[in-house]
Amino acid sequence: MQGFARMIPTETKVAYLNQLLRVGFDTLDFGSFVSPKAVPQMADTEAVLRQLDLSATRTRLLAIVANRRGAEQAAGFDEISDVGFPLSVSETFQQRNTNKSIAEALAEVADIQNLLAAKGKTLVVYLSMAFGNPYDDPYDTELVSRLAEQVIELGVSTLAPSDTVGAATPEGIGTLFRQLLHDFPNATFGAHLHATPQTAAEKIVAAVDAGCRRLDGALRGFGGCPMAKDDLVGNVPTENIVAFLESQWLATGLNHTAFTEAWQMAGQVFGGPLPASPEGGGVLK
Fold first, then answer.
1. Which candidate, 16, 13, 18, 7, places its Cα nearest to that of 47?
2. Which residues are catalytic?
């Protein structure tokens, strides 16, 4: 929701998120404790959290933060189990996203990790621009691996290489995940991919074939990163991820009735053109 231009009413967010909680996803990125001036859409995150129905869900709640102050806010809520922090492979994007250098952001990761560990919460570090960047900053898979190693040495065990502007190719996705999974077998690596409708399917296939089993998505592919560039590339549609996993006999454990209802609600919340069915029209987008 963060990059959506029209302000979504708090009650609408609550109803949509409560429906997503009924589906049975592992983790739900429900909001962000960030500057309301920078991301006004997320200014009501605390109000939303207080109205979520967690009485009958196994889904973990994840909140995004950009600094220690946001992490302290998130850590104050028992309902939140996971906190996400964006650490960029690109120096330019790190400055644009959090107004810090990569070195400064790494120091903040260490600080946030210690804070959350003391609270029994999990830090998820998103490796932004992990498949290249539009700024001509240095990039290769070794650079990503070295940054991942620095993060893991701080005690972080869950990292999500992120295709922030949709720059990844299937070959690049496969190469990076195979290398990371080989080099750091005790860490969990997730894929946070952005794509066009034409490229989503091949990106999901590449990540899964490389051994990735944690994949981020958004129903109908809505969303993107407002700090990246003006022409946003959408998130990978969750319905396409689910369709592919199940086509490969990889169990998702999802409530399909609740999933379909959430998919229908997403169209009402965000508007825009609708795909033919919640199955994504085939093996992924």
1. 13
2. 225
